[in-house]
Amino acid sequence: MLYQKSCTFKKAKYSILNMSISGFNKTNSIDRDEIIDDMQAKIGELLKVNQDLCTAKNQIEVLKDQLIQQQKEFQIEKTSLQQEIEICQKKISQNEGHISELQIENENLSLENSNLKEQYQNLEEKFAKFQKDSIESKKSEIEQTQKSFLEQSNAKDSHIAQLNAEIKELKDKNENSSDVIEEQTSKINELKDEKEINEKKIETLNQEKSQINNELSNSKKAQEKIEKELEVSLENEKKLSSEVEVLSRQNSQLEVELSTKTNKIEEIQKILGVYQSIEPKIKSPEELKAVIIKRAQIFDALKHKYQKLHKNHLITLRQFREQAQAIEGAANDLSDVQENALNMQKQIEEDQDIISKLKLRNEKLEFIKTLNKTMIKANTLLMKRVSTIEVTVNPDNETPSFRSLMIAFIMAKRWKGLIGFENKAYEKDPRNWWWLVPTKSLFDSTIAKINAQFELCESLKNEISQQNEEISNLHEKEKTNLLDMEHIKEQISIKCQESQSMQEEIENLKNQVESMVNREDLEIVVQKYQELKERYKTTKGIVIQQNESIEALSEQVQKLEQEKKVQHNRLKLSARSNEQIKQRLTTAHDQIGQLQVELDYKERAHLALERHINRGQIIESRLISNCMSLANQNNREIIYMKPDFQKCQDGDIKSKLTEMSENLVTNVY
Length: 669
Prior knowledge:
Blueprint: H1 2-25, H2 32-173, H3 177-277, H4 285-393, H5 402-419, H6 439-516, H7 519-640, H8 650-668
Coiled coil: 64-271, 327-354, 450-598
Keywords: Coiled coil
GO cellular component, one term: cytoskeleton
């Protein structure tokens, strides 16, 4: 601009000098006054041109100063942005390291959870084996005891039959009583041997009971350890969730900072484009003013159009992001619905397992019912045998005594209680009413439980159908969202076409400006434009690098968010697994309580057996004393009296036999 104005000023001077010289040579033809007037007019024009040049120089210097200041500000902001980007990268690297540490901790926690699960499974297997072994062993012991009792009863029946046969033989033959006493002593010795065997069996049963109690205490200790480890794992998971929330907050702050910095860079790029476009070179100042005014108007119009387009573009982007967020929310809802469906299926399977267990329990109760029937039949047979024995021993007394009937009734009831494992009907009553449990109430409770489980299954099926309907609705929403996305894409394409038309208008305006400017000025402007273009390319490359770094940071942020979601899902799964473990522990506690109840029943059964053994010992002592008394009487009669079978009466033998039968009957009952 300065060079152009100086050239025009020099040309005006040379033209004035030439005119003065021509006028000086033509003094003869033209008057001096006219020449002076022309000179004054041209000098006035020169002064006006000089004033315009000065104003243009001042404007150009002001523009240069503004450009220099803006370039300095741009460089300062650029350096500050680079520093902030480096700080953000450092923070992201730190966050990545922290996240890696958290992942390692999470993996360690998952390994610990897996180890705890394995330990719990091993405990369950051991507990199941222990239950099976204990139940089978106890069943076998009970069967053996039943068999032994039946054998003893049969043996005693046979023994009584033998005694009756011997009594008949004594009535017929009256042989020597010494042989009978020896046989009885041998039988008494056999009974003593059987007593010792029974005592050994009782000792073994007590040892097994102590072993069972020790195993139960060990299982309780292991369960307490597992509960403590579960509490520690829950605390660690809470710490991880708090740290993940802090990281998400830091990532959101970094995203806000990056968005503000990108907005600043875009504003700086706009300012550079405006100042790069203002570089005209025109001859006269009036044309310069007109061109500046026109270009200012054009640029104002373009600014308004660009702002409108930018606003519309931002609106479309926001709509697109909102729809993408809505789609993500729908996807998350679908995932939640699928998880709920899986949980419902698991609950249904668990309910089916419970129903199968209840069916097995009902089968066991039916089996116990059949056993009770058989026991009743056995008791009736025993009563018949006892009645036949009494009839044979005491033919005079046709009806049994009240004491013998009560003893037989109590023994039969207790014998029935040894086999069954029914619950107590009066748990809070201090007295022992456990043999008065009604069987119908137990079956009613089990039937009510089964009906409740069926109702639960039906409600779960209804919930699954509702969730399937919700899934179909979500699919329809996805289809509508896709249609909206296609409509938005069409709008974006239309707006791109409008922007292309605006660019064509800008190129036409540039061509008009080039037609108005000289070639020399254009070459100078082109050179400067190329320089500015190169600078712009360099700045654009820097901005692209910064954008790439920003995109990389945004990708890292997305990865962190994905990892956060994965960790959140893992934490959910671990919480669910912990809840399942707690449920299993509660079931194990309940099973332990049931086992304790069964042990109480077994202890009562052992006490009953001990009472029975004591009664057997008392019976043996009575038999031994009776036999000894008979032996002494026989010895005295043999020593001091001669046998006189003719004088003996039937009454003596009958009285002795009645005494023996009374002793035998009371001892048997």
